[in-house]
Amino acid sequence: MSIFTSDLTWIILWPVIGALLVYAAPARIARWVGLCVAALVFLITLFVFFKLAFGSGFGNLTNLHDSYRAPWINFNTGGVPFKVDYALGVDGLSLPLVVLNGLLTMLAIIGGWEKERVKEYIALILLLEAGVMGVFMAMDLILFFLFWEVELAPMFLLIGIWGNPHLKHGMPGRIYSAWKFLLYTFFGSIFMLAGILLLYFTNVSHGGTPTAYMPYLATHFINGSIAVFGITTGVQLVTFLLIFVAFAVKIPMFPFHTWLPDAHTDAPTEVSVILAGVLLKMGAYGLIRICLTLLPQGVHQFAGWLAVFAVINIIYGALVCLVQTDMKRLIAYSSVSHMGIVLLGVAAAASSGNEAFRMAALTGATVQMFSHGIISGLLFFCVGVIYDHAHTREISVFGGVAKRMPMLATLFTFAALASLGLPGLAGFVAEYMVFTSSFQNLSTITLISVFTMILTAAYLLWMIKRVFYGPFNPKWNWLPDANAREMIPLYALAGVIVFVGIYPLPLIQTITPSLTQLMHAAVAFIR
To answer: How many CA atoms lie within 13 A of 202 on its CB side?
Structure first.
């Protein structure tokens, strides 16, 4: 197999080609070019999914059923060989996120159809898609880091150019938020690079194969030879703490979260959809793929603190939501709270205790990553429609607008109910799995987290009532409902929420092979 016959390469390459085509095309057809390319990428992700589902199975990190590996960088530094592979692969952990990224990017282009400078806007969204796809499919730690950095530039430009121009701290909000996003993420990236290089050179200096290929590291952990190559418990803990800083910023975990509300508030709607839907998941994915898989002893040493930070995320995010006046900022803080559930599931998996419950907690955390991506995407699309029509997101100025926007009000309410975990919708599945299984190992923290869900219901229902179902404000007599183009992303995401909520088995069966291998090979020794 050559690099250009790998379907995984084309999942990354087509968005790059599409960005160039969009930029070169006349404005009147640039939108359609971008949409066609995004749809093609989404179809390729579905092709890979069904090829594995009805073929050899989804596999796991040490037994990838769809992968490509070729030498890329090879030189000596101080007499030590430094090698980086162009290594891509997907398994049950990464593939749902790859499909999710393809879907949300396609819908984001539809949502941003009327943007000014639309050619540059769509081109940057496609480049962002390529970077995120690379993160989810990279099987070499150095390559993972490079793709992690690739997404910074398009995200910075999308917020900085098309974001909200209102003044914030003496400068346009879009500039402030773009720089804040860049600096926070870059700060975390420095620690990630230090951790990856520590892992690489420790392995090489103790006689290990000079590679950062993740399946190699995972395989040697399984057969017990990893300590021979110098990756002892102490090295694992230090490496984990270094790499975890980057993931904590991206998730985001308190106290590294402050960039997120600003970025969401000032970013265009479609960028917020991608930010909440897939960029936050990069941190959670890295925590499971790299830290829990390759550095399990390090994660185990930190599991108690991880659980504490998880419950802080859940409580703090919910409490701050109660005092928000901007719909978009409220949903941004709700993401902080909901990503705390992912952290709780990972903490339970890394704790001592019954392996079956730890497996269920980790599965729930992974399902939560997908479910939150869909639900938050729908919420941000709904807020975007309101803002495009009313030119404000202030909760207090609305009232009873369901009278004028019945379709949007119905879908917004539906998304809010999914977010608070209503049975039969996608949010319930993940929360139920995490809370019931983590209770076995982290009973006090889990109980606190469960009761915090009351606050989630409070702030979401309060917002819905104030905006859509309170006394009608005659100021909005002219307000139109969502048009046909605006409804396409809303109906698409609502359909996925219902499907996952009613029939989550396909998603769980996709994830299970990867997590089973992870738990047996990397975490099962923790008693």
So the answer is: 20
